[in-house]
Amino acid sequence: MRNLRNTHRSLLKSTPGLELTASAWDVANDSVICAFGPTKGNVLLELKRWKKYDQTFQPIASWDAPCPLPDLECDKILNFHYFSDSLTACLVLAGGDIVVVREEPQTGEEKIEILGSVDAGISAAAWSPDEELLAITTRADTLLYMTRDFENVIDVTFTSDDLKASSHVSVGWGKAETQFKGKKARALRDPTMPETVDEGILSPHDTKETTISWRGDGAFLAVNSIESDSRRVIRVYSREGILDSVSEPVDGLVGALRWRPAGNLLAGVQYLNESAKVVFFERNGLRHGQFELRLSREDLQEWGSTISLKWNVDSSVLAVCYKDRVQLWTMGNYHYYLKQEIFSVSRELYEHGVSLRWHPEKPLHFTLSSIAGIQRLAYTSTVSSGATSPPNDYGIVAVIDGKCLKLTAMRFANVPPPIAQHEVTLESNAVDVAISPVTQDPNTVTIAVLHDDGCSFYSWSLESRAQKPPSPVWASGFSTRKALPEMMNAQIAYGTNGFFVHLSQEPSGSKVWILDEDSNAPSRHFCHFGKTVEGIITNGPNSASTTYLMPDQNEIIGPEDLEVEIYGYNERNDSVFGLFRPLNPAVDAIRWEKESEPPANDLEIPPDTPESDERCRIIERGAKLITVMPSTFALVIQMPRGNLETIYPRALVLAGIRDNIHKKKYKKAFLACRNQRVDMNILHDHASQQFISNVEAFIDQVQKVEHIDLFLSQLREEDVSKTMYRETLGNHADRAEIQSLETSDNKASKVNQICDAFLNALKSRTSTHFQNVITAHVCKSPPDLDAGLSQIAGLRSKNPDLVDSAIEHICFLADVNRLYDNALGLYDLELALLVAQQSQKDPKEYLPFLQNLQGMPASRRQYSIDNHLSRFPKALRHLCELSAFDEVKSYTVKHSLYSEALEFYHYQEEKLKEIMRLHADYLQTNGNFKDAGIAYEFLNDYTAASESFRQAHLWKESLSCATLIPLPQPQLHSLAHSLAEALIESKDHFSAATIHLDYLSDVATAARLFCKGYYFADALRIIGFHQRSDLFDSVIDVGLVEGMASMTELLAECRRQINAQVPRVRELRTKKAEDPLAFFDGDVNGGADIPDNVSLAPTDASTTGGSLFTRYTNRTGTVGTNATRRTSKNRRREERKRARGKKGSVYEEEYLVNSVGRLIDRVNFVNNEVERLVIGLMRRGMRERARAVENAMVEVVELCRGCVGEVFQDAVKKTTAEKNEGQGEGGGGRRVGRMSCGIR
Predict the structure, then answer these.
(1) In what ranges is there compositional bias, type Polar residues (predicted)?
(2) Reduced 3-state DSSP string for 908-922
């Protein structure tokens, strides 16, 4: 599907009196070395260099080369090779001499030196691709291998016995006789046996030459020669000179031979029945396909009698050289296309044909030389396609195949090549083709075909899928073609305003011509470049460059004085050039100055993960892009074999959908989502506010009820524009535009919001879109089944014919059993019966039930239905309305509906109290003693309330209710004693002391309990208030001494724990940093050498406790189904190990850190107790003891504060970061309180 387009052509004629006979590439300098002579009248042989863009040759060396063989009129260059690494040229002459020319000879070296001679003469020579071996065939039928130092290493003689090397068995590959033609056709004949067997008859066009060709990897060599003047034989030799195979006999085979660099085929030429073919051989000598060269009898007699072949370096193009021209052929899908026909400089016929030399590294660069001069040409492989901008993106592709132009509109027909939708027969071989954009009226395209001597225009109508073939419009001949034979038509492109532009290459430079097909006028000259333009003319990409015109007066004319026609690209200096229609006729030169690069698209390039990223797509290696059709989101690519595939890239599809959403073309966007399986939530999520405002437009465009149902049924809360399709959104401008279209209300349910919008829009369309109304109700989150069923119930009186279909539709959308329950919940038995009929329920089950309900009163029926549906609160309400209070009480107790019953009877005091009594008993039974006590106290049952509060350990409320009974004094004292003992057990000494003081009048016990809780100030206060000075020594001082002893012991234990655990944490962390493998028990042998024959690789069947870090993270090291997984028993064992923190285990550090944290929390908790103790000691004159306690506390606090940063590293870092970010002092760090009593 690709054509070859000329991008460069430079020409240089031979020096008068000299004939150019050979050329070679100097890859290092990108120049050509040309050889002139020797000829019949002049034995001088000259080497000259031709640099790119130069107009003259640079001489290198010259010498006389007389022919030593008397049967040759003059010597002849058989092989000319240039070694760029040593600046040396090697010439192999037919007379037998091997000449080396050194451009920069070293000391002791000659510039021109004959390094060897073959007395019998040389018939052919070829250097191997790696330039290490020179293969030579002599006129004495021998094959010589010589090294680069020209030492003969192998000498092989051709004999007739070589023909016995291969026993050819042909299976008729590609032959007509091997094709199936029916059961009766040649049923008894072996299809592998051909009808005729070639004998190898020589062709009258055979020039008796010998040809050598190496395979691309240099492992094999093929020699085409005549054996015993009877037949042509292709011998294949290995690099070691061993005969590998010989070819089968082929009638009419001539000397042309070229091994395809890829190595699979050898190409030769066969003249047979007044036609010429290129035939292919395998390495074993068997035929393997062919193709016609399409030459008429006159062509064969005039310029096709001498043919040679040349493959380019990547095996993509086969050059067929004739006497005055060369043809370039490409292959796709096993069909050979004639892409270009290039003439020699003077277009004269040469006996030995023109010579073509491919560039060794650049696949489509070559030189074409003849006696008159040399051309340097460059081509590129491009697709000649039509417009790709909607709505004219029909995917029109034009393929050149000689005199046949193959046209296909990919939008209508993806025809596999070499077949095409239409084939246009041309008068001469095409050079280039251009396609204009589609015009709206009459919806046609104009196709311009450039030939060697003119241009033809064709019109193609695209009004329908069944298009008519393109019809010719007019043709234009180039008058300058005859006057200037050296001119070469290179390219043609469509400009603007309905005219075409074509580029011609001439010796004086490049010229641009205008072809206005509307005026039917011949081409007119538009612009002339003084130098050869290298690049392609195209019709216009956007660019950030600035355009200037330089007229004769050196006056600058800006872009405002121009009408842009085309653009181009200059490969020579990587710059862009433009061709314009100047408004000032004085302008004759154009310059394009490139100020800045165009802005790059910041679309993120996805990683190569097609299994997880849908922007990636796996295609065959070597596939090439043919055309794109954004209107249908299609991309056509061609596989390496030649077949076409149409794909729909996700990024292109989503870009088209977004564009349609912006243009409010919701139907097109919906159909694209439906056809390409794109989540339909994007229709709303991409521009949510716009969609909600245009729901009616969406319904009007989509119209079909089924399509609207499909959209509503796929709604979900996820915003796919921010999750699933976030990566395919283009640049920041696109994202900003999307954010401006999004709604700001993100709290409401998206699904419900869309369904409500559809319900509002469908209010006036229920006659045609009633099914959509049902769908909108059911698709809410959660589904509003009651509303949908109510809509159907209301339909029975308006349009009974639609009820059955509506019921069937809603049963399709939702669970029919759930719908049956909802229909019952509406108390509509007829609707419930309709739903039940759509379910799998047995009529024996639901018909008696519905009949029983039908016979009940309304309230009793509603109660029965709600009770059946387990809607107990509603059933209780209906039961209350029946005035069956005893039944209400039992139903309330059965289903624990106390709150609902209390709410219903809150104005009926007697019934309210009965329900409250039931509720209080229920709370008491279930252990909710506090609420039970409140309920009993509401009912003035203080005895039960006091007991409930006592069980809830609420001593204040219990004693309060006990005094309201009123409870006798002994029982009250007993209750107070039990409450005080419970409080002492729970360490609430302050509350226990209050009970003893207020209810038991025991001042001594109260003071003692205050001292136990370190409330010395309260103890001193009540002793003084009750004038019990005798208790100072026996209670207060004793309590202070005991409190000091216990607090001192606690602080000493804290100090000892800190001094022991903090250094251990530091030691463990040092070990982990130095050797983490040993720390995590990864080095099982303690660093000992492990034998080499022991495999340490874990397997799925392994029972080890994990490797390295996975052992202690509850993670398995494999995802295999047979991998060992931790059981619950193992997890509990690990948790016990973690909690125990055994010394030397991996959990020790974690245990120690947690232990230090608990210690700091304990120190912070006892801070107030220490403060109250110190103050009490000071008040009783025990200053030294108070100072000792304070010093112990200060020491412990400082130790804790000093170890926080070291022990809790992660928490400290987090807190510091939050402080730096201005988030306050909150965080995960531990803080230690301050000792503030100030005793010094």
Answers:
(1) 1107-1121
(2) CHHHHHHHHHHHHHH
Q: Are 83 and 90 in contact (CB under 8 A)?
A: yes
Do the strands 335-343 and 325-332 form a parallel or antiparallel pair, or are they unpaired?
Answer: antiparallel
Phi and psi at residue 172, to the nearest 5°: 70, 40
DSSP state at residue 747:
S
Residue type, 69: L
CA 761, distance to chain mean position in Å, is 39
Two tokens at 379? 């081509």
pTM for the structure as a whole? 0.71
Q: Look at residues 41, 114, 117 and name the one whose alpha carbon lies nearest to residue 74.
A: 41
Structure tokens at 613: 């990223």
Contact, 254 vs 269, CB < 8 A?
yes
**910-953 residue pLDDT tens:** 888 888 999 999 999 998 999 999 999 888 898 999 899 988 88
Residue 509 has pLDDT above 50, yes or no: yes
CA distance 993 to 997: 6
**What six digits make up the tokens of 91?**
């010439």
Confidence at residue 559, expressed as pLDDT on a 0 to 100 scale: 40
| 829 exposure class (CB count in 10 Å sphere: 0-12, 13-18, 19+) | middle
Residues in the chain: 1240
Exposed e or buried b per residue across 728-754, where buried means at least 16 C-beta atoms within 10 angstroms of its C-beta:
bbbeeeeeeebeeebbeeeeeebbbbb
Span between the terminal Cα atoms of the chain, in Å: 100
Strand order in the sheet with 384-385: 384-385, 396-401, 404-409, 422-425
Tokens of 449: 């075909």
Cα separation, 399 vs 433, in Å, equals 8
Give me the phi and psi of 472, to 5 degrees please.
-65, 140
Element (H, E) at 618: none
Which residues face 127 on adjacent strands? 134
User: 669-687: per-residue pLDDT in tens?
Assistant: 999 999 999 999 999 999 9
Q: Which two tokens stand for residue 275?
A: 């036609």
User: What is d(CA 279, CA 265) in angstroms, rounded to the nearest whole number?
Assistant: 10
Helix (H) or strand (E) holding 223: strand 220-227
Q: Which of 326, 322, 376, 328 is nearest to 350 (CA)?
A: 322
Return the DSSP state at 360: S
Model pLDDT, residue 855:
85
What's the chain's average pLDDT? 81
pLDDT of residue 558: 39
Structure tokens belonging to residue 276: 């010429």
Question: 372 with 14: CB under 8 angstroms?
Answer: yes
Of 320, 442, 439, 328, nearest to 378 by C-alpha is 328
d(CA 859, CA 1174): 75
| Helix axes of 1038-1074 and 1016-1025: crossing angle, nearest 10 degrees | 170
Please tell me whether residue 19 adopts helix, strand or coil conformation.
coil
The residue among 449, 452, 448 whose CA lies nearest residue 486 is 452
Q: What angle do CA 943, 945, 948 make, to 5 degrees?
A: 115
Dihedral of CA 814/816/818/821: which sign? positive
- Phi, psi of 436, deg, nearest 5: -80, 160
Question: What is the H or E stretch that residue 636 is in?
Answer: strand 634-638
Where does 133-215 show beta strands of DSSP type E? 133-138, 142-147, 152-157, 211-214
User: Judging by DSSP bridges, how do beta strands 112-117 and 422-425 pair with one another?
Assistant: unpaired
The answer, yes or no, to whether residue 1220 has pLDDT greater than 60, is: no
Half-sphere exposure of 739 (CA within 13 A, CB side): 6
Is the distance from CB of 436 to CB of 460 less than 8 angstroms? Answer: no
**Ranges of H-type helices in 431-519:** 479-483
For 604-633, the pLDDT digits (tens) are 677 777 777 777 888 888 888 999 998 899
